[in-house]
Amino acid sequence: MFETEKTTAAAWFRSLRDEIVARFEALEESHTSGPFSEMEAGRFDVTPTKRTAEDGSDAGGGLMSVMRGGRVFEKVGVNVSEVHGTLGERAQAAMAARKGIPGMKEDPRFWASGISLVAHMRNPHVPAVHMNTRMFWTPHAWWFGGGSDLNPCLEYDEDTAHFHAEQKRHLDPHGLAHYPRLKAWADEYFYIPHRKRARGVGGIFMDDYCTGDWQADFELTQDIGRAFLPAFVPLVERRREATFTEADKDAQLVHRGLYAEYNLVYDRGTKFGLETGHDPDAVLMSLPPMAKWV
Predict the structure, then answer these.
(1) How many secondary structure helices (H) and strands (E) does the chain include?
(2) Would you state the pLDDT for residue 286?
(3) Which of 12, 103, 258, 270 has the fewest CB atoms within 10 Å, i.e. is most exposed?
(4) CA 25, CA 19: separation in Å to the nearest integer?
């Protein structure tokens, strides 16, 4: 049961990964003037990842694609995974507390697939960005999750407006209530309580999403993924040639510290990946190459 849906979802996440990787490498090639244009164009290093169950059996894996030291991207990771196995006690407890799924203790099998992306940019005028979409299955329930959010250290109102407008444009065909609800969800989820502030300028987010109509929920998830490139790429093209100061770069490093704090303390995906034994390098690829705390 659900094998066709699993295969379909995993294939979609992989195709979205391929499209984004190609587009990001094209951005590197086309950056021929402005800061860092004299450098060699960046390319993704692609490494298969493997997850092994406690008994040594295969438990899935994926692809870790990371570009470091490019003209436009200082560090960007675009990972896909398809993993399966049994949830440990801590993961079961966390999921039971959040979702209240009956039968989890008696049958803790799970399957999950998704794409996860985090980009840290060379030029501090270009915003950092995060995107992920995923599907999760257990014998007792299934659901989708994900979204994207913009994380500029130097904010431009027109960039924020464009990013949100593209999210709305892709969500509206599924119902006009989706964008405001997922925007509010992102504002709540990407908030850093100990800093009493958001980590960026928001976006969209959903988790544990299941209406009971798999096809409709999958199509919504696909359009969350499709919104990413038209929302983000024009901002890169608009800002990558801008000159910047040492103060601008310092602001970027401090903001990256904020991003790292969020991902290590609060992010559910980071916690789940480490709890279930996935490759730690793949799980932690979201961390910036350099950051600063003052």
Answers:
(1) 9, 9
(2) 84
(3) 103
(4) 10
